[in-house]
Amino acid sequence: MDSKREQTYNILFARMIDSMTDLNDFDREEFIWLLYEICRFFDLSKGVTEFYDSLSAEKDGRGEIMIDYDDGRGEGKIAVFRRTVTPSKTVIKSTLYKSADSENLTDDEYRKLDLMLKAMLSFISRNRLQSVVEKLAFYDEFGYPNINYFSRELEMMNEKGELHGHTVIQFNLRHFALINKEVGRAAGDIIIRNYLNAIKERMGGTGLICRVGGDNFAAVMKNECLENVLRILAGFPVSYTPDGDKSIFISASVGIFTIPDDYVFERPGDILNKVYIAAQDARYEFKGPVIYYNESIIFEKERQSNVRRYFADALKNNEFKSFYQPKVDILTGKIVGAEALCRWMIGEKTVLPSDFIPILEQNTDICTLDFYMLDRVCKDIRRWLDQGRNIVRVSVNLSRKHLFDFDPTEHLLKIIDENRVPHRYIEFELTETMTDVKFGDLKRITSTLRDKDISVAVDDFGIGYSSLNLIREIPWDVLKIDRAFVPTEENYGVTELMFRYVVAMAQAMGLECIAEGVETEKQLEILMDNNCRIAQGFFFDKPLSVDEFEAKLNGFTYKVPGFIAM
Ligand code: C2E
Ligand code: MG
Ligand code: MG
After folding, report:
1. What residues contact 260, with CB distance under 8 A and at least 6 apart?
2. Torsion angle defined by CA atoms of residues 410, 416, 419 and 420, in that order, rounded to the nearest 10 degrees
3. Which of 110, 191, 236, 288 holds its CA 20 to 30 A away from the CA of 247?
């Protein structure tokens, strides 16, 4: 190669290297030009570059074929340069041709051509790999944009100053596992696609939906589209057959964050976190299917995590106290029993069970608390016995949440016995819950306790999803009728009728019957009329501190209204 030609080659090579230095800016035109120049420099008649998505696509010839250069002088194949890009297994291949009438390449020329083409292909394939990586990084296996894509979109919107006036949502399709089971996976995929399309339509051609994972999605849209989108999320018939003759009703729970005008964007994760929290509340906390994010949600989460964090210390510091609410015989005004109710005393502050029990029920902390409460109650009873007071049976609440994870009876009995409390003074209250299907376990636990002379009560009867089976199948001693079922003047009619039959049924089955939440004289009258003799409620007393309760243990009698015959 003479020096002038060598120089031309060097310039061409330098230009090629130059265009490769910026990996992020792959300029296709530049490469087409380069290949054109290379073909001309080496007097080639044609150069073809092919891209295939996989080895089998290459075999079948299914790919993108680019003819980069063809001067029409006919062909004699001289070289094939081929690279497979891992891990995607895409193939990139350049084939070069030389016309029969042109001179053959010298060895030196061939080496130079070889070097150039290999460098080029390697660069293009790296670039190609990048786009494959991009595809993997920004889309999920169904081709939906994923959370990375979504984050990038939020970042770009922020850079362009477009975030304000937008709302971000995260939604979960309800019962989708069941729907998938019913219609099959393939139809399930069609349902998702059609549902998302319906939502997209309501987003007026702007915005973005991405798949967060499984049947969870996130979307960003203009504020004014939200109302229409929510209509679809509330429930929409989605067809899943080609001719649209079969459809299924799909709805979603949704968390919403409308970006406030004074919102300071830090990172996409902050926005995603907010909708995630609201979406979780919508999905799991039964606070309604649509939850708007606001700062009080964060406050609540913080409170919950504080409860969990301080629980162990609070136990150690004896901050949980047992309060006692008397159960009263409404004929005589005598205290015939009491319910132990937990109070968390933090300094001067009293925290009620509704503020911490549901949180402790999320893990087995509640069992620890229940055992602790039983121990305190037993210690109180033991002391009363030693002081020679008149003792009544005390009931302790047991959370049903974890009752079936392990059998608690042995431990309960151990606590009672270690405190040397006669079993007849203890009763356990178990609420009926909707997930309560393990009748067998429940029956074993109640039977074991009853065999040991310990009473068991169904708590809150009437408000849960109790079935009559629960009453028939499980050996109870006591039925506590929830206060929602105790008639008041306002809800007299049907409630009174139901109350009457529940009491009659309980009595016919030999169960002791207690009405909870009795607050008025009128209610006492109704109890009397219906033969429900024991009541617990503010009419008599609120839950009392141990000192207050103790003071009433020796023969205290409540004044029962005059109309009650003695
Ligand atoms: P529960 O077992 O049904 O207890 C009765 C609840 O009704 C108590 O609320 C009591 O203060 C309240 N109450 C009593 N009389 C009246 C009335 O006349 N009117 C009204 N409006 N309310 C009345 P509290 O003490 O806030 O306890 C709430 C729930 O927390 C209890 O419902 C029980 O399920 C649970 N709980 C309390 N202590 C414990 C415990 O140590 N362990 C477990 N697992 N749960 C507990
Ligand atoms: Mg109770
Ligand atoms: Mg109750």
Report:
1. none
2. -110
3. 288
144 C-beta neighbours (distance < 10 Å), count? 16
Rounded to the nearest 5°, which phi and psi values hold at 91? -120, 135
* 3-class secondary structure, 103: coil
pLDDT averaged over the chain? 87
Which of 321, 516, 521 for mutating ligand 1's site (highest number of atoms within 8 Å of CB)? 516
Atom 13 of ligand 1, residue of closest alpha carbon: 517
Of 94, 235, 219, 129, residue with least CA distance to 167: 219
Question: Which residue segment(s) compose the domain that 229 sits in?
Answer: 147-293
Q: Does 177 lie in the same domain as 133? A: no
CATH number of domain containing 132 = 3.30.450
Structure pTM?
Answer: 0.63
- How many Å lie between the centroid of ligand 2 and the Cα of residue 459? 5
- Cα 242 to its chain centre, rounded Å, is 33
Interatomic CA distance for residues 2 and 542, integer angstroms: 108
3-state secondary structure 25-88: CCCHHHHHHHHHHHHHHCCCCEEEEEEECCHHHHHHCCEEEEEEEECCCCCCEEEEEEEEECCC
Asked if residue 342 has its Cβ within 6 Å of ligand 1, the reply is: yes
Mark which of 236, 271, 293 sits at the end of a domain. Answer: 293
Taking only the tens place, the pLDDT of each residue in 314-343 is 999 999 999 999 999 999 999 999 999 999
Residue 124 belongs to a domain: yes
Burial code (b: 16+ CB inside 10 Å, e: under 16) for 278-305 equals bbbbbbeeeeebbbbbeeebeeeeeeee
Query: Worst-scoring range by mean pLDDT, 247-251, 439-443, 466-470?
Result: 466-470
* Per-residue pLDDT tens over the stretch 487-520: 887 777 788 888 998 899 898 889 999 999 999 9
In a domain, 486, yes or no: no
- What is the Å distance from ligand 3's center to 373 Cα? 17
Query: Which atom of ligand 1 is found nearest the CA of 352?
Result: 26
Per-residue pLDDT of 350-381, as tens digits, reads 999 999 998 998 888 999 999 999 999 999 99
Q: What is the pLDDT of residues 141-191, one digit of tens each?
A: 778 898 888 998 999 999 999 999 999 999 999 999 999 898 998 899 999
H-run or E-run covering 264: none
By alpha-carbon position, which residue is closest to atom 33 of ligand 1? 397
Tell me the residue type at 84: T
